[in-house]
Amino acid sequence: MVNQRIRSLRKKRRLTQTMLADKVGVSAQVVSNWERQYTSPDLEDLSKIAHALHTTADYLLGLSDEMEDEMREIKQFLEDKGFDRSVIFDKQSWLKVQPEEIHQIENYFKFLLQQNHPS
């Protein structure tokens, strides 16, 4: 299952084996071996693969059917906007957020919800 999910997500994300290999820090041959089920990634590589493919190790291992790591995407979005990760839980940080930024954050959350629950 790991091999199929790595290959499927890699293609969905429009990455070549070489591109994924660069993100994980292995050779393209190693990625090829994972996808052909000749070898399996170790735990450290599995974590890197999940990060590179914007998913979770649970999904890659078949322990979950939730492909997207939404929390990571939300955290990344907030970091890209210049907010510390703790902003979600810090009332004082939220009070500093400008109205237009709140609107952007709301739209992003709506987008994520639509991805999981299309009309």
UniProtKB/TrEMBL annotation:
<protein>
    <recommendedName>
        <fullName>HTH cro/C1-type domain-containing protein</fullName>
    </recommendedName>
</protein>
<feature type="domain" description="HTH cro/C1-type">
    <location>
        <begin position="6"/>
        <end position="60"/>
    </location>
</feature>
<dbReference type="Pfam" id="PF01381">
    <property type="entry name" value="HTH_3"/>
</dbReference>
<dbReference type="InterPro" id="IPR010982">
    <property type="entry name" value="Lambda_DNA-bd_dom_sf"/>
</dbReference>
<keyword id="KW-0238">DNA-binding</keyword>
<dbReference type="InterPro" id="IPR001387">
    <property type="entry name" value="Cro/C1-type_HTH"/>
</dbReference>
<dbReference type="GO" id="GO:0003677">
    <property type="term" value="F:DNA binding"/>
</dbReference>
